Amino acid sequence: MNQLSSDENITATLAHLAKALKTPTIGRVWQQLGDTARDQGWSHEQYLAAVLQRQVADREANGTTMRMNSARFPARKTLEDFNPDYQPNLRRDVLAHLATTNFIPTADNVILLGPPGVGKTHLAIGLGIKACQSGYPVLFDTAAGWVTRLSEAHQHHGGLDKELKRLRRYKLLVIDELGYIPFDADAANLFFQLVASRYEQGSLLITSNLAFSRWGEIFTDDVVAAAMIDRLVHHAEVISLDGDSYRTRTRRELLKSKTTNQE
């Protein structure tokens, strides 16, 4: 490389190299960090490490944002915002373990069961966000939404197999609100194929308002329900939530607060 004879040449060269390497953060921070390095007497290695750390941090942050946007979460609800005091039976150590997302590389599943309003969707979104932050592609939809997606793919010759293969790139699929709407035989078959395709290949996170003993009502076939449950729970963390609906409790507390203030 030719000897760089001026600061102007260095600036132009580094701008070109940062662009060529597709490292915009380096192009933005190298000069500022260079000033800091000189002021604080950093070694060349320390300076290089600082520049690369900034680039990696920005790239990871941008990657997380992209994964969260493509996951199609209906809202942004984090585990940090979830109040476990409302679920005294929810083991904190189990929740902390799931928050590490270590269940995803082993293609394990998470099943959240409980009545409406106890925080199942909040936990599902929160765990999905943790997965995005850990670098895993995630896709979220309701059970009805997943059946619609698979049905549309099935209408094209060979489309269902292609869609199931395409979904393998998502390390975690979140299926919300299973049980609110019963499936006909065709929908049950499509859903079973989704579950079967993920068995020991990719993680599923499912929320349902019905206990396993009532899943025959969802799929109108106890045999299909039993086969599906068998695949899901073979490698799974099953969590049962109970208690009052959060929305009902919040409304009740709000009304109580207004009554107290009026007195």
Which second-level CATH architecture of the largest domain applies? Answer: 3-Layer(aba) Sandwich
Q: Which outline best applies?
A: elongated
Head-to-tail CA distance between termini = 82 Å
Strand order of the largest sheet: 2-3-4-1-5
Which stretches are poorly predicted, pLDDT < 50 over at least 5 residues?
Answer: none
Please describe what this structure looks like:
There is one protein chain. It contains eleven helices and five strands; from the N terminus they run ααααβαβααβαβααβα. The mean pLDDT is 90. The protein is α/β, with parallel strands linked by helices and 263 residues long. The protein is elongated, with a radius of gyration of 25 Å. It folds into two domains: 7-68, no CATH class; 79-248, P-loop containing nucleotide triphosphate hydrolases (Rossmann fold). Strand 3 (172-178), helix 8 (185-198) and strand 4 (203-208) form a beta-alpha-beta unit. The chain has helices at 7-20, 24-40, 44-71, 92-99, 120-133, 143-154, 159-166, 185-198, 215-219, 222-233, 246-262, and strands spanning 109-113, 138-142, 172-178, 203-208, 236-240. A five-stranded parallel β-sheet has the order 2-3-4-1-5.
